[in-house]
Structure formats: structure tokens, C-alpha cells
Q: What sequence folds into this?
């Protein structure tokens, strides 16, 4: 795709990094400053984003492609807001490509697709793996859907490694990137499935690590556990510290992500208890005033 106008909803930490990559690739990237925080405005400015004239309606009116990067609990609401503008005739229904790159289950992605397609848009499923900053090798964007290749080309030669997956079921798909069949799955939502499977381990295991250390603290054997980790599991103590820091900074958005993973597990015939428990760990972590207080926050008050 040649130079395009991309609407970004919204420039959080990851969204701003994605937007910065699109700007670097030569695209005009719009965002909606109304109702956003000063931190969002600062990230948008640093990324080179352009404030849409006329708020969300102005962004929808001008954008060729809309990319949604927001907390998972907001993904459906953002899609509904875009679709509602056409229903209310504030703008003509958005007829471009709506790429949802949020950490949601395939079932939730299917709901989002139905919303945006009913308003006249084409849906592309996305899943982001990696962390900012926007330098090569840090971020991979998995894409699936009939027009996934168009979104992939927006990132050509940029820092985001955009990969089309889903195999032969998708027009323009790259079977080598994701296999040529999905066992019982839906190729349109392959990107969300990859994100769910990946985060089920990375964030799920981090929550389990915090729970294990909290148990040791509750039973008065934390020092002994740390010493044993040093012997038989070198590096695990450091990983638990990093998990605490991440939970303090981002646990508020990981609650919904763990719930989305639990729903994906159930849909696949797998138990959901692992990730419902992880959601509860991150929910309790929100009450900690600092990373070093995470373990105490996980335990009930005496």
C-alpha cells in the first residue's frame, strides 16, 4: 500500500510505538486527543502523530485504515464507537480496513468483526507480541483476514515485523508464517489465537511465579525458596522481581487479558482455571503501592 492515512485508536505505550513505525514508513497517522490523558498526548507528539480534526468522526472520515490498539476490555467499545458514527450519520459508514490488534480471544475478535463489517468496513485480525521501543526486533504484528496483506504492507521496511498468517484460507496469506491449516479454528482469527496462546504462557507463568513466592512468604519460607531457586532454578528469583514490576505497571490491563485467554481455553475444550486464577493475581496486584509490595497485596490481610 502506498502512503495512507491511518487512524490509530489509541496511542498508549504500545499503540504509540506502532504509530511511530507507521509514521516512519511514510504514512499520515491520526489520533483523537479528546478525552485522552496528558501522557497520551506526549506519546502521540513524540511518535509524530497528527491530531484528527473533528475528533473521532474526523478520524473516521479521513482514514483509509483504522488500527485499534487499546486495553482488551475496551476493544469492543472502540469498535462500537466507530460503527455508531455511521449509524448516527455523523459520517458515512467507515468503508476502509479496520485492524483490531488487541489481546482478545477469537470469540471476542469475531464479535468485533461483526460490528465493523455491519457498518461497511473490512475486518483484519491482529495480535501484537513484543515490547516497545519501536526498533527492529522488538515488535511482531501477526495479521489474518482477507485484507491482512494490505495492513502488512503498511509496515514494509519498518521496525514492526508484520506477518500474515492463517495459511491458504486467506487471500494473500503466507502459509509459511502460520501453517496451512488450523485444527478446529477459524483462519480469520488466527492472529488473536496466536496472541492468546503466547500470552497464556508469558503472563500466565509470571502470575504463577508471583503466587508461588507469595505462598512461600505466607508460610515463612520465602528465604529458603529463594535459596533453593538459586541452586536449582537460577534466574527465577530475578524473573519474579521483574514479574512484580510488570504487574505493578500493567496488571490493571492484564486482568481482562487473562479472562480473554480463559475464554479462549474453554472454547478450545481446555480448562480455564489457570488463567482465571492469573486474572485474580493481577487484580490483587493493582492494590500494591509499589512493586516490592506486590507479594503482600496478593495475600489476605491478617
A:
Amino acid at each position: 500500500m502506498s502512503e495512507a492515512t491511518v487512524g490509530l485508536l489509541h496511542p498508549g505505550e504500545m499503540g504509540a510505538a506502532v504509530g511511530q513505525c507507521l509514521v516512519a514508513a511514510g504514512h499520515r497517522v491520526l489520533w483523537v486527543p479528546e478525552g485522552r490523558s496528558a501522557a497520551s498526548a506526549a506519546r502521540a507528539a513524540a511518535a509524530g502523530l497528527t491530531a484528527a480534526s473533528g475528533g473521532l468522526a474526523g478520524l473516521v472520515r479521513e482514514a483509509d485504515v483504522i488500527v485499534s490498539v487499546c486495553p482488551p476490555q475496551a476493544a469492543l467499545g472502540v469498535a462500537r464507537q466507530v460503527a455508531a458514527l455511521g449509524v448516527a450519520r455523523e459520517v458515512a459508514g467507515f468503508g476502509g480496513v479496520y485492524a483490531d490488534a488487541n489481546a482478545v480471544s477469537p470469540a471476542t475478535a469475531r464479535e468485533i468483526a461483526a460490528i465493523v463489517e455491519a457498518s461497511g468496513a473490512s475486518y483484519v485480525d491482529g495480535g501484537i507480541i513484543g515490547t516497545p521501543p519501536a526498533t527492529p526486533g522488538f515488535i511482531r504484528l501477526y495479521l489474518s483476514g482477507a485484507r491482512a496483506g494490505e495492513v502488512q504492507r503498511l509496515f514494509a521496511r519498518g521496525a514492526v515485523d508484520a506477518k500474515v498468517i492463517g495459511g491458504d484460507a486467506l487471500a494473500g496469506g503466507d502459509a509459511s508464517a502460520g501453517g496451512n491449516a488450523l485444527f478446529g479454528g477459524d483462519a480469520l482469527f488466527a492472529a488473536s489465537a496466536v496472541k492468546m496462546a503466547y500470552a497464556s504462557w508469558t503472563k500466565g507463568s509470571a502470575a504463577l511465579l508471583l503466587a508461588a513466592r507469595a505462598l512461600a512468604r505466607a508460610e515463612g519460607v520465602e528465604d529458603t525458596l529463594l535459596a533453593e531457586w538459586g541452586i536449582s532454578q537460577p534466574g527465577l528469583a530475578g524473573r519474579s522481581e521483574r514479574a512484580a514490576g510488570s504487574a505493578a505497571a500493567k496488571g490493571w490491563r492484564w486482568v481482562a487479558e487473562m479472562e480473554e485467554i480463559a475464554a479462549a481455553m474453554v472454547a478450545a475444550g481446555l480448562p480455564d482455571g489457570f488463567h482465571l486464577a492469573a486474572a485474580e493475581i493481577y487484580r490483587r496486584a493493582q492494590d500494591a503501592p509499589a512493586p516490592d509490595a506486590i507479594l503482600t497485596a496478593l495475600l489476605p490481610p491478617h
Notes: The longest strand covers residues 122-130. Confidence is low (pLDDT under 50) at residues 168-184.
